[in-house]
Amino acid sequence: MIFDTTRYPYPSKRTCVFAQNGVVASSQYLASQAGLDILKKGGNAIDAAVACAACLAVTEPTSNGIGGDAFALVWYKNKLCGLNSSGPAPRALNPQALADKGLTRIPLYGWIPVTVPGAPAAWAEMIGKFGNLSLSEVLRPAVHYAEDGYPVSAVVSQNWEHYLGLYQKELKGDVFREWFRMFAPNGKAPSPGEIWRSPQMASTLAMIGESNAESFYQGELAEKICAYSGKHGGYLRPDDLRNYKPEWVDPLHVHYHGYSIWELPPNGHGIVVLIALHILQQLDLDPDSPEFDHAAIEAVKLAFADGFSLIGDPKFQEIPLHQFLSEEHAKFLSKKIDLKSSSPTPQQSYQGGTVYLATADREGNMVSFIQSNYTGFGSGLVIPDTGIALHNRGSCFNLVKGHPNSLEPEKRPYHTIIPGFMTKDSRAIGPFGVMGAMMQPQGHLQVIINLINRKLNPQAALDAPRWQWTGDNTLLVEGSFSPDLANVLKDFGHQIEISGSTASFGRGQIIWKDYSQGVYISGTEPRADSLLACY
Question: How open is the CA angle 90-94-96, to the nearest 5 degrees?
Fold first, then answer.
């Protein structure tokens, strides 16, 4: 253990949680408890992660759903495995099809941004490869909450109201009617504590469990998805769903002050975290100094500039990962950092609506899992009689010919959702993550700095006020951010904006294994309806 578990330098003074047998950490308490119940029934960390993820699709539909994508880092029997369960663009969708419609960019809503959903396939793949229980049993808690209902939690209710207002302005036409029928049948969002249920979603989840997700990709559910696509001029076809398979990949890592930090390779932007950490590793700065915070911000900018130039689907073009993660490249970039805020290549702006969860069991298995519908509820499309809200991840493509992230049929887009993991001396330390679109690499960087450089315990590392680079020299900070530090950063040339909300600063979870005592030390996000369920 490198941190002082009694140190609480931030106002909340929440304690981290210790557990011996298992932990489930997520942004919604019912989902965390469902994962714990699965652990107690003989499931392992993988079973618990899938149970929690499926429950989040029901209890936090403002950020994820059955029709989204998922990624995972799985530590199983002393080996780390990566799962990329993001889906490609349909075969029928191409730049010319959009040009024929007079479009110069990909819209957020409707059928155009819908790529093949990967989340159900991720659940089945993880359970089939590593689980102790059947997928049907693991999904049972989610089926229960969808069928019998649950009281909507406070932050979810707030987000629901936000997206309802947005969708009422943006979603016009019959194709979106199902979304309003399912999520706002009375023309309003559910209040905190109000019971919400979806028997159609319950039936769909049960069908996914009983068929090991085959129904979603080549059965009854697939037929309904494709029928709705055909009715409204969508691009998804039966072959797009039938041919989809998640991909097991080799995670990437860099060494950082004695630890190995792991992220998934592109098409996600976990490499941005690794490049930024590698830059900081070259600098000899006091982690409690303003100069260190400034360097971290500048490292993020440089890493994003790299990321936007190289991240795309590696199946379509070779990505020189080792070059960008090399010591030489990190040293080269570190020399660009001085005590002046810089404005690197303008970034492409991405939005977000995501859930992150982490699990661990008594055998030492651990999961870092992330799942998303991209922007809020996603595309605004709900498949009739299923409760499936389709994501809009395809809006992350661009239409710049030759760019690594340009739209092509069967290509996966740039993905913002990234799970993280730490090891030391070939032993698992644990999963971590901070969701939130472009905030995710920045959130990963900040919690790693808090844990490793500043030796904060997991809860304090999450409680710490966050900053967020939003483009050019603009730095958005939380209201609890140190005024003294903000003033020094202003002197360095950063344009400081104080946010009146914590909504855009991400929501994270951390599980840390203390081998000296044989216990897990965990923290959960104070900016959400989070819960650490453990025993």
Answer: 155
3-class DSSP assignment, residue 129: helix
82 with 188, same domain: the answer is: yes
Cβ-proximal residues to 482 (8 Å cutoff; 6+ apart), any chain: 465
Question: Hunting for tokens 């990505």 — which residue is that?
Answer: 319
Q: How far is residue 301 from each of residues 123, 203, 320, 329, 333, measured CA to CA in Å? A: 34, 45, 20, 15, 11
Residue 15 has what pLDDT? 83
Structure tokens at 208: 């996914």
Residue 237 lies in a domain: no
Same-domain check for residues 429 and 325: yes
Helices marked H in 171-289: 177-183, 199-211, 214-218, 220-231, 238-242, 270-281
Are 448 and 500 in the same domain? yes
pTM, to two decimals: 0.96
Residues 6+ apart with CB under 8 A from 208: 66, 120, 123, 124, 135, 139, 215, 216, 221
The reply to whether 114 falls in a domain is yes
CA distance 117 to 241: 8
Residue 234 lies in a domain: no
In DSSP terms, which residues pair with 469 in a beta bridge? 475
**What is each CA distance from 57 to 107, 119, 187, 247, 508, in whole angstroms?**
24, 10, 21, 22, 17
For residue 406, the one-letter residue type is S
Q: Which 3-state string (H, E, C) describes 432-471?
A: EEEECCCHHHHHHHHHHHHHHHCCCCHHHHHHCCCEEEEE
H or E segment and range at residue 389: strand 388-389
**What is the number of alpha carbons within 13 Å of residue 112 lying toward its C-beta?**
22
DSSP state of 526: T
pLDDT of residue 350: 58
Residues carrying an active site annotation: 354
Does residue 220 lie in a domain region?
no
Q: Which of 389, 386, 358 is nearest to 374 (CA)?
A: 389
Q: Are 464 and 456 in contact (CB under 8 A)?
A: yes
| Dihedral angle, C-alpha 423, 429, 434, 439, nearest 10 ° | -30
236, 226 in Cβ contact below 8 A? Answer: yes
**For residues 272 and 278, what is the distance between their CA atoms, to the nearest angstrom?**
10
Q: Is 34 helix (H, G, I), strand (E, B) or coil?
A: helix
Taking alpha carbons only, the member of 314, 320, 310, 327 closest to residue 272 is: 310
- How many domains are contained in the chain? 2
Count other C-beta atoms under 10 Å from residue 169's C-beta. Answer: 8
Angle of helix 199-211 relative to helix 45-59, nearest 10 degrees?
150
- Give the chain's residues under pLDDT 50: 346
3-class secondary-structure state, position 279 = helix
CA distance 387 to 179: 9
DSSP state, 116? Answer: P
Residue 503 has what pLDDT? 83
Q: Which domain holds residue 528?
A: 249-351+418-534
